[in-house]
Amino acid sequence: MWRDAVLVGGKDLRIEARSRVATNQVAPFAVLVLILFAFALDPDRGVLTRAAAGLFWVAVLFSAVLAVQRAQAVESSDGTGDALRLSGLDPAGVFLGKAGAVAVQLLALEVVLGVGVVLLYDVEPAGYPTLALTAVAATLGLAAAGTLYGALAAGSRVSETLLPLLLLPAVAPVLIAATRASEAALGTAALPVAAGDWLALLGVLAVVYVAFGVVAFGPLMEEQ
User: Fold this and answer.
1) 147 neighbors 213 (Cβ within 8 angstroms)
2) How far apart are the first and last CA of the chain?
């Protein structure tokens, strides 16, 4: 399973490195979302600073939808999906590889967005260990859920519009927990927040999404 995961994840990352879709489209889109939020809330810099964590994770969530759609588009072109099903690779390994590739892209994007938040929203970086743990746990949850729901929507003729409808409600707990943990790290929460509790919730969500994906991805591949 792990060997297959490395093969599939490496394949997806090589495709993205050659196409540069994440660099030329997803990253500019995410930065543009932050800029639009800054324009919308600029008259009140205090509100912008307090909302920085939530706006950051909303931008990450939108970008995750695009990244998952791109990953599924790669499998649906030129019969790649059929070749993958006939390759004899472990479906669990395929899931872990695809989710891992999406997670790597999102983590790189979060570094760029973090710099953007500091520059645009007048946020002073703090609580680096908490922020790092939050980013890793939330990204794993988003990538696992996105890969699973991406496979579920892939069999539909309206997969581009169906995926957000399926994915966004499912990852709402990840968005909320990541926002609260980030607020605790940055000191921008309106009320005292225990970052450890939210980090624990993020960890549980990530484990649940990954475990469910490992079990359910095989049948979803067969139905595509």
Assistant:
1) yes
2) 21
Structure tokens at 25: 């489209």
Rounded Cα distance, 159 and 164, in Å: 9
pTM of the model: 0.86
Domain membership of residue 175 as a residue range: 2-223
- H helices of the chain, in order, are 2-19, 21, 27-41, 45-50, 52-76, 80-86, 91-121, 128-154, 159-170, 172-186, 195-223
pLDDT digits (tens, 9 = 90+) for 32-58: 888 888 887 766 667 777 888 888 999
Question: Does residue 71 contact residue 98 with C-beta atoms inside 8 Å?
Answer: yes
Query: Could you give the number of structural domains in the chain?
Result: 1
Place of tokens 């746990």: 137
For residue 157, what pLDDT band results from cuts at 50, 70 and 90?
Answer: low
> Which bin fits 79, alpha (ψ -120 to 50), beta or left (φ > 0)?
left
Rg (CA), the chain: 18
Question: Angle, nearest 10°, between helix axes 52-76 and 159-170?
Answer: 140
Query: Quick one: pLDDT at residue 22?
Result: 72
